Amino acid sequence: MGDDALGPHVIKLLEASWEPQDGLQLIDAGTPGLDLTAYLAEHEAVVVVDVVKAKGAPGEVLVYDKRALVERPPILALSPHEPGLREAILNADFLEVSPRSIRLVGVIPQAVEYRLGLSDPVRAALPAVIERIRRELAAAGVTPVPRAEPLPVDIWWERKADT
Q1: The whole model's pTM is what?
Q2: Which CATH number covers residue 129?
Q3: Beta-carbon neighbour count of residue 40 at 10 Å?
Q4: Cα dihedral 16, 17, 20, 24 sign
Q5: Counted domains in the chain
Q6: What is the DSSP letter of 79?
Q7: Tens-digit pLDDT profile for residues 106-152
């Protein structure tokens, strides 16, 4: 869905450039809806990456903390993303399994439509997104270790099928 593939792109980039280590999990959760609660449960800190509907220019990077996410008014939406992050946080809070810290690193999309590939503004934002994730993790006490030799980045969904 175009720019909505931001999260999977970032996960693939991080897997290729950071060493696996204790205290850091990289998860492409897809569009889990309320099942997102299970991904949040029992972690100290979580950094979520996704495109966000906000005022601003395509490619602009925005960061929201847990409080800002739960204080948003509920939306009436019927999509694979609903219920969304807000509802999962509220559910995790209710179940008393919520992370102490939740940060959403979001990017304003140019286009969320049925097509492959990120738009140019969102693709250009990838280095800033990765740097922001690194800073958020450092604030949570996790220091990602760069790979001595980065792995190839496998954005498999953008490969052209052999015909």
Answers
A1: 0.86
A2: 3.40.50.1450
A3: 21
A4: negative
A5: 1
A6: S
A7: 999 998 777 778 999 999 999 999 999 999 999 999 999 999 999 99
